[in-house]
């Protein structure tokens, strides 16, 4: 097992190099560069530059060098001193910007993940055990509704509801009066008032998928002879279901971790923009629009790395959970 | 104060009526008294210049304190900050935009032929860290930044030249300097007063010298320690002299503005906070130091819809950007009571709501010839049903017009405004039949080479009203046999293809100016002269630099028009200026290079009911950066 993990870790290195090259190249693909968008904004407000001035600014940003050189410089900074470069738009080191947003990003994402699991596990089991019952149909109906409604529409609707009927400040995680205060009980309550909207919005879409997967897997398992045997031996119904078939049906939950990790950063982007959440998603989108290439490149690199780690983690967890996998 | 016909002097007119300047009265009204008492700040009298600028409030004297709740959408719009806290040039536009008045400068004297401008600064004026603001700062900008080979010219400072020669800076003493031109420079003060143009009040030399190689031989090493290649890059980052965005991202650099950032945008990606500058150089007519507001808090919002909801909730005190679209007006109107705000008028200053531009410097020879045919442009103009666009997109507000000067302005030219604006497809067809008689089986006209005439309008997708107007305009063009199409694209691609290239067929844009003072400073639709004249980018380049490899020598009549504008720029006398501008507008009507849709309808902004001293009707412009010249330092809540 240990040698397997080490082997996997080594295999990650060439993949990472590939990811970094491709992501850097893709960021540079659109026409123009960061300076183009800056100059456009300034030209709109009637501040115009001569060609020599523009060339000088381009040189200051290092944008006049060929792409290969820019890439090598960036990668060398990361490898040699952990320096992910400088964000043009925010005028700050990339690593600072990313870390600043990590706390809120992780907590919102983990909260919604817990919400998804807390809702979909019991409902999935219930639906599988009571297939085609009224409860199953109702759960399926709402599940599909959640899957079908685009997140941002749901977000806008819930925001409107919370504005219209609860009269609270919309968007962000705190009301303006709490934004600058240190953490307190009142501030925590204010946070709870805000955080349910993103959690519900992000959660609903994921819930339906997991309910369906769990329902399908568990249905398969429930018909297998060992469940019959368990019941025949007189095990209580909840033990007969929860102890074995559910454990097997859980596999998709675990293998989902592989894509959950990068999803933590980019998956909720549109929702986060609509809800004005201080998470990493809007920052990533903004950096792509503005062609703020080191920030965007570092984000994509980070997401690539998280995907790889997530895959490894889910493989290891699967092996621990399900002895059959180890033999393959 | 209007410019007189001959040499003139600009000084502040208002005086303090109820108190004398000296004496302890200032101290009583000191908004930062507690800091003076504990010794962390000098007394108010020592913080103000000897002769502070006395501001007469719009409506009434205000009270100190409070927070101005504000918002910015997206990370890249810091260029907008000049409107709220960054408009402090040496001389500024007056609130009703009829002229220029002293601001940072105590007075300006201009000689008879507008070649010598003598500025007097305010004695004892200080930066927000308490260091004196003197002519040394002006010299530092001029010599060590503007003229420095490495730092390079700082942003667009074309108005410091006249007749192709740079004005000379002549320092007299700590508080007096002169700018001397060889050739009259009639628009020096007006240009200086435009939003974001004057750099002389933005460079604290005592702070910036540490990053300049001339004053600190270690500057290169300092830059390298911060991961930059050389001192120039670090100097640009610290000074922000090239880019507005960078200028506002530094809370360490002192400022003379009313509020100084304690948390600059970018230092925090969710919110920026600007606090009162204890050394601000303005007082109201009772001698109270301005600004009234203790601070401005900008929430950084990702999406305009969120800002709209926040405004409806009453979280925003003043907003004249992002959300004030025609389509949002009913929603905002309904929310007035709930959000406790009201509308103010933003008088539109753009030359037209949308200007159609055919690329007159097209790389394709067939289209080049066709677009340069004036009759073809006239036919296109007749083909457009302007009234239906006004009804659908601007809720009936507007009047069909070409890009032009408004009625009521002394330079209004009815021919320029209204020629070829009637919707007349028959006339358009008749003209086009004379130029392109052949048609294909689908009824589209064939060009000289026998190919279907397709004109692709390339449009920046962020300009949503353009997209709406084109939905109506495209069938208009198709009805007269022109296969007009629209291609929307992301702004950066649009910038590269349209502003930066010559391969596009056509595009559309707005801005420019519809009043005398604005149009003389920005005649983009009457003379191709700047990067904004992208309907003829080669000719525009020829205006500024005929040697440029992309410059194209314009035909004689356009060249004569460019020469007329050069003559205008070198003219000092206001009456002569008006005369030349009149001629330019007349020739522009004859040349008919671009055509428009409608006079731009007035816009609106929202302001909270408890926010005072905001003008009920303001110009909306970049040159007059709304509401900067309406003096946000005297806004207050109460």
What does the model show?
The complex is a heterodimer of chains A (328) and B (638). Helices cover 77% and strands 1% of the residues of chain A. With 328 residues, chain A is mostly helical. Chain A has a two-stranded antiparallel sheet with strand order 1-2. In chain A, helix 1 packs antiparallel against helix 17 (293-321), helix 6 packs across helix 9 (185-222) and helix 15 crosses helix 16 (280-289). The mean pLDDT of chain A is 82. Chain B is of the alpha+beta class and 638 residues long. Chain B folds into 2 domains: 8-203 and 241-284, Dipeptide-binding Protein, domain 1; 355-596, Roll (Dipeptide-binding Protein, domain 3). In chain B, strand 4 and strand 5 form a beta hairpin. In chain B, helix 14 runs antiparallel to helix 17 (425-435) and helix 22 (556-569) packs antiparallel against helix 23 (574-591). The interface between A and B is large, with 61 and 68 residues.
Write the layout of secondary structure elements.
The complex is a heterodimer of chains A (328) and B (638).
Chain A: H1 2-28, H2 34-44, H3 51-60, H4 67-81, E1 86-87, E2 92-93, H5 94-129, H6 134-148, H7 151-164, H8 176-179, H9 185-222, H10 225-232, H11 237-242, H12 245-249, H13 251-255, H14 257-266, H15 269-275, H16 280-289, H17 293-321, H18 323-326
Antiparallel strand pairs in A: 1-2
Helix pairs in contact in A: 1-17, 5-6, 5-9, 6-9, 7-9, 7-15, 14-17, 15-16, 16-17
Chain B: E1 8-11, H1 25-28, H2 33-37, H3 44-47, E2 53-55, E3 67-73, E4 91-93, E5 100-102, E6 105-110, E7 116-121, H4 135-146, E8 161-162, E9 165-166, E10 168-171, E11 176-180, H5 188-193, H6 205-208, H7 219-225, H8 231-239, H9 244-247, E12 259-263, E13 271-276, E14 282-284, E15 295-301, H10 304-312, E16 318-319, H11 329-334, H12 336-339, E17 341-348, E18 355-358, H13 365-371, H14 374-383, H15 386-393, H16 414-418, H17 425-435, E19 454-460, H18 464-479, E20 483-489, H19 491-499, E21 506-509, H20 516-521, H21 537-544, H22 556-569, H23 574-591, E22 595-596, E23 603-608, E24 611-612, E25 617-620, E26 636-637
Parallel strand pairs in B: 2-14, 3-15, 17-25, 19-20, 19-21
Antiparallel strand pairs in B: 1-6, 4-5, 6-7, 7-11, 8-9, 10-11, 12-13, 13-15, 16-23, 17-23, 18-21, 18-22, 24-26
